[in-house]
Design goal:
Layout lengths: L8 E7 L12 E3 L7 E9 L12 H5 L15 H13 L17 E2 L2 E2 L8 E8 L6 E8 L8 E6 L10 H10 L3 E5 L7 E3 L4 E3 L5 E3 H4 L11 H10 L4 E3 H4 L8 H18 L16 E7 L1 H12 L7 E5 L4 E2 L6 E4 L2 E2 L7 H15 L14 H10 L1 E2 L5 E2 H7 L4 H11 L17 H11 L10 E6 L5 E2 L3 H5 L1 H4 L9 E4 L7 E2 L14 H11 L7 H15 L2 E2 L8 E6 L11 H11 L6 E6 L19 H18 L7 E3 L33 E3 L2 E4 L2
Parallel strand pairs: 1-3, 8-9, 8-14, 14-15, 15-26, 16-25, 17-30, 19-20, 26-27, 27-28
Antiparallel strand pairs: 1-2, 3-6, 4-5, 6-7, 7-9, 10-11, 10-13, 11-12, 17-18, 21-22, 21-23, 23-24, 29-30
Length: 695
């Protein structure tokens, strides 16, 4: 790996007060052999008592507290307080252990057994930034004090979803620290950074917030508007907020692989700077250091992207759970479940998400016992059903509508989702996963749209009880680093800018006739950008072209250059359907490796995208996180001991059962382990471009 000397950086070394006197916590200057793209670096050493790497000083007992750790001043939380809240959220132990988290798997469980002590891990944490402003990427590198220097290892764990840089601390981070590995996190150029265009509040790299003029070049994102443009936009559409993923103009998903690889490069450089006795004589290099790239959902897709982009041997293996990937054209790769060919496979999220948003309000009528059904506007959903009838083969045909009548339209909408690659049993989850802001966010990101473009008539804002935009409170903006999922700061929501009577929360938007219609106009616009037609207007054709170009920059080919890879996915996933992600990727890998693919795929029955224990989820679904942790263990055995990875297989689980909200505790019998030698009827096979998955 070629490197050049970076100019000396001023490294602000913040030392835990219990470790050294306050007078020693001053800025020091020393030459830094760092990658040239790093623009900012700070560090803090944690003693493992007052504060630490894994629990942010809370210990496992504090992570289990149902009340999040509160800042001393909610309007002005410190970076340390924001970090603590983010780490608490990432562990998830506050939900209780009835679903197995904290008892069968989780940050306090290793190898199926409880971790001794209270979980505090001493060590040094580095925070780094590559680039500036809207183009910046944030990194956190944790080096435990007991790092295994004789057999060093790095766990590269990109953020899940659109979330912040600490979102994998309680899962992959904990797993790595338990093995005395360094852990490298990255937000993939997204994260919770925002620009409140009304108050001028932005987020700095460390998560603190303040006026744009005061934060200056330490802002992780601003909307790129001058003062006049800001004033004009706020006057026309007051209280709107821009956020980094949708409005950065950089299409961050295109560089996910690069960002993960940079996190590994940075970690090796930091380990080499902090030379200790017992380190490899050749230094920390790809040859001397074991590296696993791993993540969940979008983070899983980023880990796979890193594996594909790595042509220098930085990454030894990839482990991904429910990876969200936009795949290259399948070119003959087919997916068969049981004896039935899957009708649609390999669609990118933008397309299956836009299609799902159109169909889900109607399809939800088929499942009146599903979670969230009480919030469904049945009259509006039935109007949506009628609006789906037409000549579009992806929706509901006129002939089928005439055959079934109005009462049969919800069933036809669900059938359309199955034709689009969703599982037949997904009907129970369609309403819970109805989320039109996901496809519009990706459309904006791919098109590199500005917040002022209001693509398809969408914006984001905090709203009052009637759904009308209102100003954020100072405390809400200040907490966003720890509470935002990577979109508008909580409690901000998607806004329909074109609703009759004025802009309103998308969930309350009205159609042309003044009745609630789940913003059919906006969703149709996003759908047309995802599936452009020849009859589109010139402006819409231009946006669709930009969206397609951005999407193409994110596609995965299946070529991991022979790296051992484990994918874990829940069969019932309705957010990232298996037919558009892991299943066809297995075929792409086999084709890229001329039939000798190195990907192993574990499909778990009765598992879906979110390990929720809420009523209606608790009795039907098992946690996929249990299998993600097991997959990491299996890959560790492959890398350290030479053990063979298990073959691709279906793992057949047993739901907890019982009434919604009163399911019995999850036990080991509900979640059988990934089998070293699965039964023939459970094997997933790939041959001749055909991926065969047993029912």
């Amino acid at each position: 790996m070629t490197r050049r000397r970076h100019p000396a950086l001023v490294l602000t070394v913040l030392l835990a007060a219990t470790a050294l006197p306050v007078t020693d916590a001053a800025a020091i200057e020393q030459p830094a052999q760092l990658p040239p793209y790093i623009s900012e670096l700070t560090s803090i050493r944690y003693d493992g008592r007052a504060d630490d790497l894994l629990t942010a000083g809370l210990g496992f007992s504090g992570l289990r507290d149902a009340t999040p750790p509160a800042p001393a001043d909610p309007d002005h939380p410190t970076a340390a307080e924001l970090r603590r809240r983010a780490v608490w959220a990432s562990a998830g132990l506050f939900v209780g252990d009835s679903g197995g988290l904290g008892r069968l798997y989780g940050p306090d469980i290793d190898g199926g057994r409880p971790v001794p002590g209270d979980g505090r891990v001493a060590g040094t944490e580095y925070r780094a930034v590559a680039g500036r402003g809207a183009a910046s990427v944030s990194y956190v590198v944790q080096v435990p004090a007991d790092l295994d220097r004789t057999r060093p290892c790095v766990v590269a764990a990109p953020a899940t979803g659109l979330a912040g840089v600490y979102s994998m601390t309680g899962s992959a981070g904990a797993w790595g620290l338990h093995r005395r590995c360094a852990v490298a996190y990255t937000d993939k150029g997204m994260g919770p950074a925002f620009d409140d265009l009304h108050s001028g509040t932005v987020m700095a790299y460390d998560g603190t917030t303040g006026p744009r003029t005061a934060v200056g070049d330490r802002a992780a994102f601003d909307a790129g508007l001058d003062d006049a443009e800001r004033a004009r936009f706020d006057a026309e559409r007051p209280y709107r907020v821009a956020y980094k993923m949708a409005h950065s103009g950089t299409n961050p998903q295109a560089t996910w692989g690069r960002d993960v690889l940079r996190s590994v490069e940075l970690t090796l450089a930091l380990l080499n700077r902090d030379w200790r006795e017992g380190a490899p004589s050749a230094g920390y290099t790809p040859a001397t250091t074991t590296v696993i790239a791993t993540g969940v959902s979008n983070g899983g897709g980023a880990a796979v992207a890193a594996g594909e982009d790595d042509r220098r041997g930085l990454v030894d293996a990839v482990v991904a759970s429910e990876p969200q990937m936009n795949l290259a054209p399948l070119g003959g790769v087919r997916v068969v479940q049981g004896d039935r060919r899957v009708p649609s496979a390999g669609l990118p999220l933008l397309r299956y998400g836009a299609l799902a948003s159109m169909l889900q309000p109607c399809a939800a009528l088929t499942e009146p016992t599903a979670p969230g059904y009480a919030s469904l506007d049945e009259a509006a959903a039935r109007r949506r059903c009628a609006d789906l009838v037409g000549d579009d083969p992806r929706l509901i045909s006129r002939r089928d509508a005439a055959r079934t009548g109005p009462a049969g339209l919800p069933g036809l909408a669900q059938q359309a989702l199955v034709r689009a690659g969703f599982q037949p049993q997904s009907s129970y989850l369609q309403l819970a996963h109805y989320d039109p802001q996901t496809p519009v966010s990706y459309a904006m990101s791919f098109a590199r749209a500005s917040v002022t473009d209001s693509l398809c008539g969408y914006g984001w804002a905090r709203t009052d009880a009637s759904g009308h935009p209102v100003p954020y409170t100072r405390a809400e903006l200040a907490a966003a680093f720890a509470t935002s999922g990577g979109r508008a700061p909580a409690p901000g929501v998607l806004i329909d800018e074109n609703s009759p009577g004025g802009p309103v929360a998308d969930a309350k938007s009205l159609g042309p006739q003044g009745a609630h219609d789940y913003n059919l106009q906006g969703e149709r616009c996003v759908y047309r950008l995802a599936f452009p037609g020849a009859d589109a207007r010139p402006a819409e054709r231009d946006w669709a072209r930009r969206v397609a170009q951005g999407l193409d920059a994110t596609r995965r080919t299946g070529d991991l250059h022979g790296k051992p890879t484990l994918l874990v996915h829940g069969r019932d996933d309705t957010r990232v359907p298996v037919n558009h992600s892991s299943r066809p990727y297995l075929g792409l890998d086999s084709r890229a490796q001329h039939g000798r693919g190195t990907v192993r795929y574990i499909e778990v029955t009765h598992a879906q995208h979110v390990d929720s224990t809420a009523p209606g989820f608790d009795n039907r679904y098992v946690p996929l996180g249990f299998y993600y942790q097991q997959a990491l263990d299996l890959m560790w055995g492959r890398l350290r001991d030479g053990a063979q990875l298990p073959p691709s297989q279906v793992v057949r689980t047993v739901p907890r059962g019982g009434a919604p909200g009163r399911a019995p505790d999850l036990e080991a019998a509900n979640v059988p382990p990934i089998a070293r030698r699965p039964a023939g009827g459970d094997l997933i096979r790939v041959a001749g471009g055909v991926v065969r998955v047993p029912d």
